Amino acid sequence: MLLLQTLREETDRVIEGLAKRNFKEAPMLVNEALTLDKQRRDIQKKGDDLKAKSNADSKKIGELIKNGKAEEANLLKNQIANDKQAIKADEEKLSELEKKLQDILYKIPNVPHAKVPAGKGAEDNKNVFEHGVVPQLYSGALPHWELIKKYDIIDFDLGVKISGAGFPVYKGKGAKLQRALINFFLAEAERAGYTELQPPIVVNEASGYGTGQLPDKEGQMYFVNADGLYLIPTAEVPITNLYRDVILQEENLPVKNVGYTPCFRREAGSWGAHVRGLNRLHQFDKVEIVQITKPEDSYNVLEEMCKHVQGLLGKLQLPYRKLLLCGGDMGFNSAMTYDMEVFSAAQQRWLEVSSVSNFETYQANRLKLRYKNKEGKMQLLHTLNGSALALPRIVAALLENNQTENGIKIPEVLQKYTGFDSIN
RNA sequence: GGAGAGGUGGGUGAGAGGCUUAAACCAACAGUUUGCUAAACUGUCGUACGGGUUAAACUGUACCGGGGGUUCGAAUCCCCCCCUCUCCGCCA
């Protein structure tokens, strides 16, 4: 969530920035927050002054009693009663205001970076560049949902039987391909200086709030009612929350973590005609990179993380493009997001396989993730993350783009992980 | 799931209604000393939200796992909850 200080001191920048998201309620919410903030400060001042008086009086009573002046003490006790009532009333009012303010702050998304273009949706994203050559497929080339049947490597019907739609079963070389991709991605991340983590894949409510999935996306996560736990939609949630309520040492920055986890998304109501096969699933695998940086470094790191992702796509020899998302297409928490999309040749479509974001202090503020800067002042850090990479659509593109009449070729970099060079 | 013991600042750990403004030690930081390192000594050393200020200085409040309560006054007493540890049960 945004800092109150930012709302107060940079009101215009905030409102103008939020306008790029096509977020119409912004001016109203910001004004409401500022009004509540003013009220809160007034009440706090009043209450604090009363408390100061009452603290002093209590001390006086103690001394009077010690000196055997019980009558004077009792007199003072009676006088305090009124103040006590006023203090209580102020406290109630204060916590009511704080709650209201909090609710409003939760509703205000992050302010897009100055370079983020305004826009409503995907059509307004800025194509930064395209890389690679779209392969010419032989006639009779199949989309991946046909290929997986032909070679019997992924079975959706079996998944339906044991779980439901969107929970595929990977079989034989299909399962090995998954494992190979995960190992390849982890190895590359390690080479780039990321420390591998294996976090839990269920998290508590506080973690959901920490990274901003709650209260915004409550319905998107699977929830384990009996234990009050959420299945993670991305490794970002457990990994970033490791640093909740943490004060990091400057010499330990930047933090670079990578983790492979399954990811779970309810995707309520989003099943449509063009999400066939592996394009959208309830459970999928993803390797996620997370960095925590000093504020002044975060945008360089954002580019560095993109380069890492681009490197992976390049090594897999997949044609891809890099998009700078417009305000309207960006996630709630993000200040700037790049999407990487690969071209899936049989579907003739771009598929999003990675989203790399800088959240600036938006998450850190909720997480209370800070470090002590050179002046000895506590300062919020910046958090960033990116998929590196999400598996299903990579698999879809690999299968489609590398198909030949005699089978599907495995990219050379993957072969040492798969142990085979083609699926046939 | 059952029984017990605990949760105090960056760490260890005292405090058991007003002598606390949370002791002491360690760590950290600054300084003194020193050819360098080490050691010793001196000093500094919490966070959040306010007030105040150009900025500071200064100043108020809250915070001893969380939430309530008793009291003029709570780290301390009472109630509820959460978590950790030990033992038992179950178990990959």
Description:
The chain is α+β, with helices and mostly antiparallel strands and 424 residues long. It folds into two domains: 4-107, Helix Hairpins, CATH 1.10.287; 122-423, 2-Layer Sandwich (BirA Bifunctional Protein, domain 2). 43% of the residues lie in helices and 21% in strands. It is built from 13 helices and 19 strands. The strands form five sheets. Strands 1-11-12-13-16-10-9-4 form an eight-stranded mixed sheet. Strands 5-7-6 form a three-stranded antiparallel sheet. Strands 8-14-15 form a three-stranded mixed sheet, with no helix packed on it. A hairpin with a 5-residue loop joins strand 14 (370-372) and strand 15 (378-380). Helix 5 packs across helix 12 and helix 7 (173-191) crosses helix 13. The longest helix has 41 residues, at 26-66. The protein is elongated, with a radius of gyration of 27 Å. The chain binds one RNA strand of 92 nucleotides through helix 3 and helix 4.
Short recap of the structure:
With 424 residues, the protein is α+β, with helices and mostly antiparallel strands. 43% of the residues lie in helices and 21% in strands.
Characteristic key phrases:
3-stranded antiparallel sheet; BirA Bifunctional Protein, domain 2; RNA-binding; Helix Hairpins; alpha+beta; 8-stranded mixed sheet; 2 domains; 424 residues
Furnish the topology, listing elements before pairings.
Blueprint: H1 4-9, H2 11-19, H3 26-66, H4 70-107, E1 126-131, H5 144-150, E2 154-155, H6 156-162, E3 169-170, H7 173-191, E4 195-197, E5 202-203, H8 205-210, E6 223-224, E7 229-231, H9 236-241, E8 247-248, E9 255-264, E10 283-293, H10 298-315, E11 320-324, E12 336-344, E13 349-358, H11 362-367, E14 370-372, E15 378-380, E16 382-390, H12 391-401, E17 403-404, E18 407-409, H13 412-418, E19 422-423
Parallel strand pairs: 4-9, 8-14
Antiparallel strand pairs: 1-11, 2-3, 5-7, 6-7, 9-10, 10-16, 11-12, 12-13, 13-16, 14-15, 17-18, 18-19
The chain binds one RNA strand of 92 nucleotides through helix 3 and helix 4.
